[in-house]
Fold this sequence. Notes:
This protein has helices at residues 19-24, 49-58, 72-81, 97-107, 122-125, 153-166, 183-188, 198-201, 205-217, and strands at 6-9, 32-37, 63-68, 86-90, 110-115, 133-137, 171-175, 193-196. The chain is an alpha/beta fold.
Amino acid sequence: MVTAQRINPSILSADFVNLQAELEAIRTADLVHVDVMDNHFVPNLTMGPPIVERIQAVSPVPLDVHLMISDADRWAPGYAELGAYSVTFHAEAAADPVALARRIRDIGARAGIALKPGTDPEPYLELLPEFDQVLVMTVEPGFGGQSFMADMMPKLRRFADAKAKLGLDLWLQVDGGITVDTIGIAAEAGADTFVAGSAVYGGVPETRIAELRAAAATHAH
Ligand SMILES: O=C(CO)[C@@H](O)[C@H](O)COP(=O)(O)O
Ligand SMILES: [Fe+2]
């Protein structure tokens, strides 16, 4: 069986003044990746619940919310409540990642855990049944348009191995520097869900999404 692959454009690279049109432009995507930043966990500031709620209301594709915020335990459940399809918080920002994932799942969203490049995956491997997706950051979180960190591939493989060993239906997501040139490297290492901001919005989004899909498919497991 070939693993399903997902392309999730990040609206961080979209024109925020024309967000509704930018959301329409990616209707062939699987999910829309929404980067929430608080200028505390990362040195950048984007949006909070009121704007994400409006995006949820008008988006033709479901929301994949990536929280780059401190005190995730306090804020993450609200994004599940407003209807996000998945809510991913950072391991480094949650006091109790398992309890938080359970709250997100109880509300009805998929629960994701994200790891910054410097974060060791080992403590999280045995917790994987508590999550629906793992996000391996392939740039330092905070900004779009950075270069893909190929040295994160051993971490991705570590999660892919643990997923296989435990027989889990877990999505492995990569975020940062994904292009037609790097997506195959990530797919090869076990990723099945690909976030791309500048690569999608830097051209005609529908064409870019199709190109990314084709490039990823040649490396599907
Ligand atoms: O979470 C982040 C950045 O912190 C990402 O989702 C970026 O928005 C991806 O942008 P590109 O690297 O694809 O341009
Ligand atoms: Fe992101």
